[in-house]
Amino acid sequence: MTVRLYTDFDGPLVDVADRYYRVYLECCERVPSDTPKLPLSKSAFWELKRAQVPEREIAWRSGLQRPEQTAEFVRWRQTLVHSAPFLVYDRPWPAAIAALEKAAAAGIDLAIVTMRRHRELLPAVAGYGLGHLFQEDRRFCLADDYQKMGDTLDKPQLLRRAVTCLPPCTQAWMVGDTEADILAAQRNNIPIIAVTCGIRNETQLGLHHPEHIVRDLREAIALILKSAPS
Ligand SMILES: [Mg+2]
User: Fold this and answer.
1) 191: closest CA among 213, 164, 172, 208?
2) What is the per-residue pLDDT across 172-206, written as a single tens digit (0 to 9) for each?
3) Does 218 lie in the same domain as 160?
4) Which of 1, 51, 104, 230 is the most buried (most CB within 10 A)?
């Protein structure tokens, strides 16, 4: 009897709001403008991200309204959001780590499935002290030179790879914070628990019909432990 949890990394395990906001401010700074820029507050910015408002519109609402300005904003954002100088602003959720420890102690097999690249994931796993929770063969991420096609295409494939590589289990669950996680789980016939502590709000997550929506990884793991046949 093996219960396995595939968890996304950014969102359920790591609070990325600060990184995303600092990247946003940097993008506003780097795009030239002869009219005043109007950077949003962190909470206003994060609310827009969670409502899945496109980057172009976030730029527009920040005073960058010419098409070439919004395009440049989007380009900078893509360049910077996963870059080392900004990854340092990530913080693991303390309650998530405690919950994972509890899941591991209860015999749940833990695996990470993330759109981070190898070079972005490994230092974080080591730095946050997660190595003992996720063995090396249970860290599924993108190769450093992988050409991304988009999360909703890449994530189902990556989860497929994880399912195929690992030994069969009696029951599997996926936890994630975006539509890409929900789609990946659905394509692989795995029930998905969406968490609202990440980059999408409950309304956006609900549009994709996950099995459950809970606040965070701690609540997701409580639900898994409760439903695990003893
Ligand atoms: Mg995520």
Assistant:
1) 172
2) 999 999 999 999 999 999 999 999 999 999 999 99
3) yes
4) 104
Distance 8 CA to ligand 1 centre (A): 6
**127 and 155 assigned to the same domain:** yes
Distance 145 CA to ligand 1 centre (A): 20
CA–centroid distance for 206 within its chain: 17
The CATH number given to whatever domain includes residue 179 is 3.40.50.1000
CA of 194 to the centre of ligand 1 (A): 10
Quote the pTM value: 0.95
CA of 50 to the centre of ligand 1 (A): 12
Same domain (yes/no): 9, 22:
no
